[in-house]
Fold:
Amino acid sequence: MKIIVTGGAGFIGSCFVRLALEDPSLEILNLDKLTYAGNLENLDPIAGNPRYRFIKGDICDADLLNTLFADFKPDAVAHFAAESHVDRSILAPQPVFDTNLRGSFNLLEAARAACDRAGAALIFDEIQTGMGRTGTLWAYEQTPVKPDALTSAKALGGGLPIGALITGERLQDTFQPGDHGSTFAGGPVACAAALVALQICSEPAVLASVVRLGAHFAEGLARLPYVSRARGRGLMLAIDLADGVDAPALARRALLEQRLVVNATGPGTIRLEPPLIVTEQEIEQALSWLQSLA
Structure:
């Protein structure tokens, strides 16, 4: 299996690359611009590995991305390249925009082009990002790329168990009756709930509220004394914690002391995904509870 890794010379990306190469079936192409966060010394333990290749380059270089996808023919992409230093983004916001938005979009477009060349399907997982969570019905609508298919579940059922594979015109005739079966697929009660959930989550007023309240919540999270950065889209948010703050311990305290449910997705990261019907007053209450944990 071949994987293109972006930002693989940074702290997180290099850890991924080193760990991935412990699997003898994997081959890694590491693309990194080597800015302030990239350091090739992080990759010294794998120097000379025949299944590893490093390319110094920028994900904002669309021609380079298309060439790498065409030549390397990856099976997967692990995208870590990002400009995330708060002080640097204040002094020079353009690199943040270029890398985090334009560069990421370039990567998606290169993946789209690679799939088109190979006759492969480009499939997006929208189980968590879809159903209005990021401010549009599907998160891909905020990118320049349209997938051939996407997966949806969880929120799709409005609390009832359901999963769906949604295809576009290219794949609409791929599945025939009897080709695909599932324990939870097609039940009349769950499907009725999904139709209502889709109707509600498609309403412009609901989506506008997600964008507005998400921005308000993110601003409040960024002001917490133990937070180094708040990030996300709509009501799919995360906070990166300051050095020395343990995310699992903070999540436990939030639950036990304030009855607030948050998710520690890493040693220094907390994810927050409130209901799409959350009110501004409830967000203020949650911020107050999080402030009390300082």
Observations:
- The chain is about 35% helix and 20% strand.
- Residues 123-201 form one domain.
- The mean pLDDT is 88.
- The chain has three domains: 2-118, 123-201, 204-291.
